[in-house]
Amino acid sequence: MVSLSPPVCDFGRPAPDFDLPGVDGRRHTLASARGPKGLLVMFICNHCPYVKAVIQRIVRDTTELAALGVGSIAIMSNDPTDYPEDSWQNMERIAHELEFPFPYVLDQTQAVAQAYGAVCTPDFFGYNDRLELQYRGRLDESRKETAAAGVRRDLFEAMRQVALTGQGPPRQIAGIGCSIKWRSS
């Protein structure tokens, strides 16, 4: 397992479009996922210890962001060949067990992850109401272990600011996660 940190936020970069199947049996697009005040696009998977450490906080934060008008979507782009925990069936199971308040979709071709420049799981992309990138940072100070209760909620605070002002914070702390498991050519 390789740990990577995504690059810093490329402010204003437009959100690439997508049309992906969700574990809810529906197809989801950029337009259907966005909220009136913005959109959080998350690249996650089921097996990554970094994701496992924060998944309950992701559910909490996306629920609270929805109340502020920010939509959320989680994209699984890993090749499950060597990581069966990332299979479609396990995506369905995890989304159901944890009652995801957002669509959980499969990027089987990995074209969406490439278009976004996603490098790891979790990798967060926060957009304003014009779908311009405003946040590319960590959820909080969690790593492979969940950080202590009460730590600063970096992602939530940044996206709340985006919902209120249309702009993300100028200072952002990069996240860290497992490298995306790219298909071998």
From TrEMBL:
InterPro entries: AhpC/TSA, PRX-like1, Thioredoxin-like_sf, Thioredoxin_domain
Record-level Gene Ontology MF annotations: antioxidant activity; oxidoreductase activity
Pfam family, one: AhpC-TSA
Domain Thioredoxin, chain residue ranges per copy: 9-144
The name this protein goes by in its record: AhpC/TSA family related to alkyl hydroperoxide reductase and thiol specific antioxidant
Organism whose genome encodes this protein: Sulfuritalea hydrogenivorans sk43H
Lineage summary: Bacteria, Pseudomonadati, Pseudomonadota, Betaproteobacteria, Nitrosomonadales
